Amino acid sequence: MYILGVNAYHGDSSACLLSDGELVCAIEEERIRRIKHWAGLPVEAVKWCLQYGGIDIEEVDYIAISRNPSAHIHKKILRVLTKTPRIGFLKDRLQSVSRISDVKDGLARVFGVKASSIRARVQNVEHHRAHLGSAYLVSPFDRAACVSVDGFGDFLSAMRGIGRGNKIEILDWVEYPHSLGIFYTALTQFLGFWKYGDEYKVMGLSSFGRPAYLNEMRKILRLKDNGLFDLDTSFFVHHKEGVDMVWENGEPALGRLFSDKLIELLGNPRQRGESISARHKDIASSVQAMYEEAFFHMLNHIYPRAETDKITLAGGCIQNSLANGKILERTPFKEVYIPPASYDAGTAIGAAIWLWSVLLGNEREFVMSSPYWGPMFSDEQIEIALNEYSLKYIKLNDQELYEKTAKDIADGKIVGWFQGRTEWGPRALGNRSILADPRKEGIRTILNER
């Protein structure tokens, strides 16, 4: 049985292919189009997955999509009726629902076949269930606490559950407009970082400051007795105006998320290009500290309910490696599993494996113990590419290559290392990596400037 998993019409669009529950391959659309966080229907990713798997679109049995427009539909309708968001936002939401419902037809047009010839059944999987599945259902654990945290997906921003065997029992969740991801992104914008995915810059900046504004952050984000949290929405605009996102077939861009009240609380926001001051560093440190308070509040609360010291985590917020590194220190959990692509790209695998394990009731056998699921290239293919662009090269055997690379790094040179299959996820994990000598003064600046 072939299952095509798809994260479509959302940031970090991606696709994967499962064969009888085993992952064959996975890739993000951005790796092919060369546009960061590309959003839309991942047609190139789908084409590559099918090509790598050696099958045609007509041979796919199921298409699993990591969005379910009907999830929490009554709450979505109530929200529209009571809050009256702007017309543009409503139009965007309706178009998004239409596109998600049209994925099969969209693929038929891309492949030049009739929709009726694609025999695959389409299964929509709620966004956060796909996140949970992308972690627990490919983990080595038979029982684990399961937590998903991100900005928003299908009206939710977080979900907690307990994984047992091939099922995940959903315990609770956080609904729109409250979101730990929106909190972090809004403060990222406040600090002058406006590009989609810039949150890592605040995480990095936080280590240079002190949490002098933590009390202010506690006014913005509040912890609840049930182990969850909520926002004081007066510091934000998304609950009234909707999230202004432009992303169709390109890099997503978010509109402003914070209100003028946040400026009254923290002072003027940093402008783009403005020098980073000690105050900005302290705000970043305070944002990170508040994030960690809420994050560990969620984890510590679920621990006694899960009755296990194992936990799996997914969602865009789980890209916060600074917090992840403190889990064993600040919670009772002793074993942690986080997939290589915990953010939205990973929901393609999550939806596919949720369909295979939870909805179809198959036993779990696949464990993702490697991050290498993308394309690889033979020496012949590499040589053709080098010749096409008239690049100079020499051919070495493996031992010669290792020795020359080590010498070049020791001599202060920067090496691009290219081997095997590409990584699944945003981290350079040895197959597509830039290597340099960390002893060299100023090497971080040199790398960043390039």
- What amount of the residues lies in strands? 15-25%
Helix content: 25-40%
How many helices in DSSP terms? 18
Q: Please mark out the parts with pLDDT under 50 across 5 or more consecutive residues, or reply none.
A: none
Outline? globular
Main CATH class of the largest domain: Alpha Beta
The fourth-level CATH homologous superfamily of the largest domain is ATPase, nucleotide binding domain
**Fold-level CATH name of the largest domain:** Nucleotidyltransferase, domain 5
- The oligomerization state is single chain
Radius of gyration: 23 Å
What is the topology?
Elements: E1 2-7, E2 14-19, E3 22-28, H1 30-33, H2 43-53, E4 62-65, H3 73-83, H4 87-101, H5 103-111, E5 121-124, H6 127-136, E6 143-153, E7 156-164, E8 167-175, H7 180-190, H8 199-206, H9 214-220, E9 221-223, E10 229-231, H10 238-241, E11 245-246, E12 253-254, H11 260-266, H12 278-306, E13 310-314, H13 321-324, H14 327-330, E14 335-337, H15 347-359, H16 379-388, H17 398-410, E15 415-418, E16 432-435, H18 443-449
